[in-house]
What we know:
8-stranded mixed sheet, Aldolase_class_II_sugar_metab
Amino acid sequence: xxxxxxRDHICQFSRSLFERGLTPGSSGNISVRLDDGGWLVTPTNAxxxxxxxxxxxxxxxxxxxxxxxxxxxxxxxxAALYETRHNARAIVHLHCAHCVAVSMLPDIDxxxxxxxxxxxxxxxxxxxxxxxxxxxxxxxxxxxxxxxxGKYSCVMLSNHGPVVAGDTLEAAVFxxxxxxxxxxxxxxxxxxxxxxxxxxxxADLVSTFHSPATATGGKQSPG
Length: 223
């Protein structure tokens, strides 16, 4: 796909996410890794609902700005995910409400922030890690991401929002949407002792659909 087309795709997906209330105001950022090792990145302080393709930041492989507006301050977050998720070609970071709410709850398992409630969560997300709070733009988040050793394509940043890596922009967006829907289900079902997928059912999904990360199965009830 040409760089021009990729810029258009970033704007199209960004607008869709914004218009559905998945990231308010000027929050959230998206990047796509190019064949030459450089990136296209959404600019800092830009609403995902009103992006101009020509103003999207173009970085080289070292992270230096080549053209466009100044990039998001979350470059360390994106860089660490690309470094550890070698097949990743796109990253989506949003401030969607249900994921942020889950990240603020006590007693969330940092290795499996959400239980395997649905097959599409397992198929598109695998498992989700929960990291401690870091100030937005804090370079220290990169070390926390590296500490996950590339085992997770979906990560929640406590009190902040989720970040998802995918092998295409479409895959990353779809996984982000599935993550937010699963977080919504989790909150709806807290205290109701719902039936989750069994380890055997999870293993079947992972082997059949090549889940992006190792998911956990079994009885893990919300709340």
